[in-house]
Each structure stands twice: as C-alpha cells, then as structure tokens.
C-alpha cells in the first residue's frame, strides 16, 4: 500500500481517484457502493467540503470589498462572481450529486445562474457561501443511506456517488485554487498560509 501522508478525507479521495485512473471503465460502471460504503463516502465528502468551506470563508473575508469586482481579463468571472459560482454549486449541483433537491434560491436556466452570480458584493458572497453551504450540507447529510447507494443523474449521465463526489470535490477545489490565484495577484495572502 502507498504510504502517503494525507489527512483521512484526502487519503480516501486519493484512493478512490487511483481506482478511477487505473481501473477499466467497464469495472467502474459496475461499482455501485453498498450502504456502508455509500455512508462512508458521504462522510468523507462532507468532511472534505467542511475544510474547503473554511478556506473559502477565510479567503472571502480576507479580500477587501473593493477587490470583489476585479477580474483577470474581460469576459472572465470577477472575484465576487467566482465566489458566487461556488455558492451556486452549493445550492444546486452539490445536493443534486447525491440525489437531493436543488435549492429554489436559484431558478432553473442559465440566465438565473448568471443573474445570481452577478450579485457579487462581499456581503452577498458571505451570505450565500454560508447559506448555500448550510443548505447543501443539511440536504446531503439528511438523505437516507438507501437513497445514495444507486446512481444519480448529473450533467446528463447516470453516476454513482463515488463519481459525483469526485466530480464535485474536484470542481470546488479548482475554484478555490482560482480564487487563491486571484487573491495573490491582488497582493492578498490566504490567511491559512500565515
């Protein structure tokens, strides 16, 4: 076994990622987690997102309000819009990844997402990061284990929670990396690196 010094949640995600990289697609398609595996995967997924949310909030608080409209280039999300995109994923795609209902805070359709993300002041960001995360966590944690052992429809595909957990976790971590880069370009050091 690999001896990689990673926190438990990251170690579990790393091992699952290795399975996806090295296992043939036909083997993965047949891997639907049993009840115990599904419950453990959800536990690890939520623990990983707790850490991610903590860093998102630390970074959102560290960035001055006047920097929330900064964007690296025309047509690219601003700092505030990138944070609101994360909040939109908490409200919609992360619960859906586990088969939970999406929040009614954001109506269906691209226009609704664009409008939501455009409301990107620092107070809007902090409000929706907190409320979106609370909505997601409550709904995902509240699902009966029997409801997370099969597959969920996400992005037009039937996927197991092993797959949806990796998709959502990777995407949210990518946005954290994006926001860290935005902060550093603006001379702001992520608080947890002090």
Properties at a glance:
mainly alpha, Four Helix Bundle (Hemerythrin (Met), subunit A), globular, two-stranded antiparallel ribbon
Supply the CATH architecture: Up-down Bundle
Gross geometry: globular
Q: Assign the structural class, choosing from mainly alpha, mainly beta, alpha/beta, alpha+beta, or little secondary structure.
A: mainly alpha
Contiguous uncertain segments of 5+ residues: 1-6, 24-28
Please give the alpha-carbon distance between the first and last residues.
34 Å
Radius of gyration: 17 Å
Order of helix and strand elements from N to C terminus? HHHHHHHEEH
- Order of strands, widest sheet: 1-2
Strand content: under 5%
Regarding quaternary structure, what we see is: single chain
The number of helical segments is: 8
Total beta strand runs: 2
| Major sheet | 2 strands, antiparallel
- The CATH first-level class comes to Mainly Alpha
What is the total domain count? 1
Could you say what the CATH topology is called? Answer: Four Helix Bundle (Hemerythrin (Met), subunit A)
Your description of this structure?
The chain has one domain (about 10-194): Up-down Bundle (Four Helix Bundle (Hemerythrin (Met), subunit A)). The chain is built from 8 helices and 2 strands; from the N terminus they run αααααααββα. The protein has about 190 residues and is mainly alpha-helical. It has helices at about 10-20, 25-30, 35-60, 80-90, 95, 110-120, 120-140, 160-185, and strands at about 150-155, 155-160. A two-stranded antiparallel sheet has the order 1-2.
């Amino acid at each position: 076994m690999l001896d990689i010094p990673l926190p438990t949640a990251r170690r579990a995600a790393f091992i699952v990622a290795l399975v996806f990289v090295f296992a043939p697609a036909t083997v993965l398609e047949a891997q639907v987690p049993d009840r115990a595996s599904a419950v453990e995967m959800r536990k690890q997924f939520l623990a990983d997102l707790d850490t991610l949310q903590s860093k998102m909030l630390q970074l959102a608080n560290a960035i001055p309000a006047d920097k929330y409209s900064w964007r690296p280039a025309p047509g690219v999300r601003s700092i505030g819009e990138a944070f609101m995109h994360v909040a939109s994923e908490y409200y919609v795609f992360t619960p859906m990844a586990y088969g939970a209902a999406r929040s009614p805070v954001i109506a269906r359709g691209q226009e609704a997402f664009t409008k939501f993300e455009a409301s990107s002041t620092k107070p809007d960001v902090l409000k929706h990061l907190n409320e979106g995360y609370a909505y997601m966590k409550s709904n995902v944690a509240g699902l009966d284990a029997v409801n997370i052992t099969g597959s969920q429809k996400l992005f037009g595909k039937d996927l197991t929670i092993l797959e949806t957990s990796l998709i959502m976790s990777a995407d949210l971590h990518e946005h954290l990396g994006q926001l860290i880069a935005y902060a550093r370009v603006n001379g702001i050091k992520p608080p947890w690196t002090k």
